[in-house]
Write a structure and sequence with these properties.
Elements (H helix, E strand, L loop, with lengths): L1 H9 L8 H10 L2 H8 L5 E6 L5 E2 L14 E5 L6 H9 L30 E4 L1 H7 L6 E5 L9 H15 L3 E5 L3 H13 L2 E7 L4 H8 L4 E5 L3 H12 L7 E3 L5 H6 L2 H10 L7 E5 L4 H16 L8 E7 L4 H8 L24 H11 L2 E5 L1 H15 L5 H15 L9 E5 L8 H4 L12 H6 L5
Parallel strand pairs: 5-13, 6-7, 6-9, 7-8, 10-11, 10-13, 11-12
Antiparallel strand pairs: 1-2, 1-3, 4-5
Helix pairs in contact: 5-15, 6-7, 7-8, 11-12, 12-14, 13-14, 15-16
Bound molecules: pyridoxal-5'-phosphate and zinc ion.
Length: 455
């Protein structure tokens, strides 16, 4: 009980969890009254409160009626024959739907119009390993820039879209730091949904264009992401937002589950083995917590050996509420006003911050941050060593990996997976000034010789 009270206090800063919203959703519009019988989300058996454990029927709700804690999807997992399950997965499509038996989606999900993200490359990064002093064969980059809209967000949106379909929504929406808006716009276009997405007005051009090009509505909000999120929470509780599925608000429990597929893929691609260490970026912290959930499920299902692993979180110094709390030994995350080039990670009041702290501490990992200059250096390091052009969030994870190795916190002799969650083409400004033509010459051999570039 004491622990419960403490947890409740830790979460009190969360603006989106209003009792008003929850009550109107559950009692008057009754999705949870009817959901239990009519909604087919595969192995998902309900929602459970992460704080007090209270169970709810499947529906577009996201906060506990009793304690306002966040809800997450609970499952009837296919426990029993791990070998049969592994074979079933391996025979599935080369995208996230190969893991459909472990996700809140109907069994025939692969037949529905969806962008089918996932099964991105796990790159053995030998050149980067050499530069960072990591043992040969031990360093991997999970490169999620290979998704349909070039960020990991396609995974979570694909899940939320299936939930939106199941609950009868026809408009898909979100508050976004940039990548999510593009992923929602594209998924809605493919599935024949309307979309209306909200972003801070001052995002990078690459993100704005990616969000607008798919033909849905795109609204710039004068404020930062936390302002956008607060606005969306109000919209959900208002008749103006009636019938809208906000992927990261009222569909958040389902959305989050998409990140589990990163855990599944990494383990499958390592030959059904757990990595020893993972370095994961933190915006709201959803991705990090769900990767941990996915790893725990694989252990429970007997698909990987049960052994310890360490989870490291990565933030930008200019928006580092979680790493600040980690280093101070706090279990409360104090909100910050973001100021960093890593805009996709610029959430000053991260909803899952306290859970990230729990996971980093439980697994023996850490949360660290790097400044803008180190982010740029890390983007260029990854590009020059492995031919992977990461967005600023990838600069954050690679930069933090380097820093953790130098600090002796990350063991360079163990299998380590570093996430690159987005594509450098969306954040060109970060490196444009220092990535220009080596020389500009007349089209003649003499000019080329004079430029001193012949090898
Ligand atoms: C959204 C995002 C993340 C992580 O987001 P969480 O809110 O922590 O789940 C990481 N990288 C990129 C590029 C993103 O767009
Ligand atoms: Zn609760």
């Amino acid at each position: 009980m004491a622990k419960f009270a403490l947890r409740k206090m830790r979460r009190k800063g969360l603006p989106s969890m209003s009792a008003q919203t929850v009550e109107s959703r559950t009692s008057t519009e009754n999705p949870s009254d009817s959901a239990g019988t009519s909604v087919d989300l595969g192995p998902a058996s309900g929602l459970s409160c992460r704080e007090c454990g209270q169970r709810f029927e499947l529906g577009p709700i996201f906060a506990c009626e009793l304690c306002f804690g966040p809800l997450e999807v609970a499952y009837d997992l296919p426990l029993g024959d791990p070998e049969a399950l592994r074979k079933q997965i391996e025979a599935g499509p080369e995208n996230i739907w190969r893991y459909a038996p472990l996700l809140p989606v109907p069994a025939d999900v692969a037949d529905k119009p969806n962008l089918n993200p996932g099964f991105t490359k796990l790159v053995k990064a030998e050149n980067l390993a050499r530069e960072l002093g990591v043992e040969s064969g031990k360093l991997f980059v999970k490169d999620d820039s290979g998704n349909p809209t070039h960020s990991f967000k396609d995974r979570v949106v694909a899940q939320a879209l299936e939930a939106a379909r199941a609950f009868g929504f026809t408009t898909l929406s979100c508050s976004s730091t940039g990548n999510l808006a593009g992923a929602v716009g594209a998924a809605a276009a493919r599935a024949g949904f309307r979309s209306c997405v909200f972003i801070p007005h001052d995002l990078e051009q690459g993100k704005v264009v990616m969000a607008a090009v798919y033909g849905g509505e795109l609204v710039g909000i004068e404020g930062n992401y936390d302002d956008v999120n607060r606005f969306c929470s109000e919209l959900i509780g208002d008749p103006l937002g009636e019938g809208w599925g906000f992927v990261n608000v009222n569909l958040r429990p389902y959305y989050g589950e998409g990140s589990k597929t990163l855990a599944y893929e990494i383990c499958e691609q390592l030959g059904w083995r757990l990595p020893d260490q993972l370095v994961i970026p933190i915006a709201s912290g959803s991705q990090l917590t769900k990767i941990d959930k996915g790893l725990q499920e694989l252990i429970k299902l007997g698909l990987v050996e049960d052994k310890p692993y360490k989870i490291f979180g990565a933030q930008a110094e200019g928006c580092s509420p979680v790493s600040t709390a980690f280093k101070a030994g706090h279990d409360v995350v104090r909100p910050q006003k973001p100021d960093t080039i890593a805009k996709s990670l610029a959430i000053g009041n991260p909803a899952d911050g306290p859970y990230v702290l729990d996971i980093a501490r439980r697994t023996g990992g850490a949360v660290e941050d790097v400044n803008d200059e180190q982010i740029v250096d890390a983007i260029k390091l990854l590009a020059r060593t492995e031919g992977i052009f990461a967005e600023t969030a990838g600069g954050v994870t690679v930069g933090v990996t380097k820093k953790l190795i130098e600090a002796g916190l990350l063991d360079p002799t163990l299998t380590t997976v570093v996430l690159n969650t987005g594509d450098g083409l969306k954040t060109l400004d970060a490196v444009a000034a220092t990535s220009q033509a080596t020389a500009t010459i007349r089209p003649s051999l003499d000019a080329f010789r004079d430029a001193g570039l012949a090898h």
